[in-house]
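Fold this sequence, please.
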Amino acid sequence: MRRYNQISGQNIQRIEFLSDGVFAIAITLLVLDIRVPIRDNISSEKDLIIAFFKLTPKLLTYFLSFMTLGIFWTAHSTQFHFIEKSDRNFNWLNLSFLLFVTTTPFITAFLSEYITFKFAIAVYWLNLFLLGTMLRRMFRYADKHDFFKTDIIEKAEIKKAMMLRGIVAQSLYALGALLCFINTYLSITFLTMVQLFFALALFSRSQSRVELKNG
């Protein structure tokens, strides 16, 4: 009989379904940290405006983390578009990646509560780093064990694009975290701009313009 470890974790569809569900729940949980101002404390338009703007740290970190999870979900789904096989180890690598997806709502709430503290920025960056690290380990494991679809055209170019994306993203995240030594709001603003940069595909657009110019 084949050993259990040799036959477990091979259903790639179950891995994708679980991953999508975890991302959906994590993204939903982000908004639960934003609470409507208590009605008893509001007696005028001015009070309401002041109470609303006090929510700025939570709204800012919510938007940042929503973009972050959206970007990592897109990267995760892009990888799985080209992967057709799995095994026990790959399954657990994916679960380890999802571990840091599930910590994102807590890390976001922690940052919004202590937004002026450098340590809160460091913890948030660490979560970003671990998300990127686990996603990269999954990619390398799938590549090493030939889990990618055999009929992929320009496989080398696809692998290069994925690796470059990860390196650029993690470098920018590290730079954004270091900006907290100047100002924590500057750090968060920079990280938000980085996420918008990737979400709007500005990096690929700039590459295309360079290629057209050189061509």
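The chain has a mean pLDDT of 87. The first helix runs from residue 4 to 7.
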